[in-house]
Fold this sequence. Notes:
single chain, alpha/beta, Aspartate Aminotransferase, domain 2, Aspartate Aminotransferase, domain 1, 2 domains, 7-stranded mixed sheet, binds pyridoxal-5'-phosphate
Amino acid sequence: MKNETKAIRIQTERTNEMEHSTPLFLTSSFCFDNAEDMRAAFADETDDNIYSRFSNPSVQEFIDKMVALEGAEAGYATASGMSAVFGSFMALLKQGDRLLSCNAVFGSTHTVIAKYLPKYGIEYGYLGANATEAEWEAAITPNTKMIYLETPTNPGLDVLDLEMIGRLAKKHQIILNVDNCFATPVNQRPIEFGADLVVHSATKWLDGQGRVLGGVVVGRKDLIHDIYLFCRSTGPALSPFNAWVLSKSLETLDVRMERHASNALFIAEQLENHAAIANLRYPFLASHPHASIAKKQMQNGGGIVCFELKGGLEAGRKFLDKLKMLSLTANLGDTRSIASHPASTTHAKLSEAERQAVNITPGLIRISVGLEHRDDILADILQALEGI
Ligand SMILES: *Cc1c(COP(=O)(O)O)cnc(C)c1O
């Protein structure tokens, strides 16, 4: 079966009720017929469900689909994207290990790496998004245990070379862990380039309708087993209800992402030379500094467009205030188009120098392009750009 079909047809076994749509197993625990069956399950001699912090059929269905879509061996689903990121670090890194990453990572991921990992004696190093192969290799120390990256990055849309970094990770036997949130597996499959683990915030495009939080990590079976053991004891399990919502969402992921990307490319092309815009970024535009890497590893440019307003911080705030249809909200990857201004919101706590280091300029606007008609999205942006 092709992935589009798997995302629709993978389903928990039909119950005696003969339901067509997938059932929701909203239960905290599972029953046993007798003491011996219960003993065997607790002794890990069977894989019967015990308790929904460990496993649940609705959660497993979502995991099974993500494993298939990413071409992975196994997976574990979590309550949010951040618990997938954190769980993958804490299960696999120990005191004295070093995590190598890129300074352009999601804000909360940066907080985990730079503030919390050092508390547990785990070192970290950052490279810039334009670092060369030689620079990456030079940054690998003997205690470097994991390379963690995000591509395209949030919110700056830098694209990192998965093939190059995958090759280095293999050569030095380092775990490569990739946040594939922005591309989704229908657009980019990091495992094909040598990633050992792929993490997702399912909250974004995987849900795609702004309803639930969720996360998932998929990849090598041995690594996922360690993550599972860590998570089943520490408790960031995905709610069965959220898993059910997310599994239904995956049925439409492929068609949704195709339209998000074609709408985004249209918006990017129409705005690229606008008088109020200094610098527009979209991975599949020839003007993007990493366009050739994007074309090598992605099927399309994704659903996010970002640009710099010539008027800086004040213009950014004015632009948001003038929008009539686009939502001002902290999420992305929704059917509804969303505008955000990182310098005054998500990245307001960073210093000017820290913002500059990760390409967050005062007038940077990020648009998560939705599924409304492309003419309506463009019209709202154009009227908001007038006179700012
Ligand atoms: C939102 C996001 C996360 C965190 O996910 P949550 O579900 O909000 O915890 C991680 N990585 C990227 C790239 C994101 O956009």
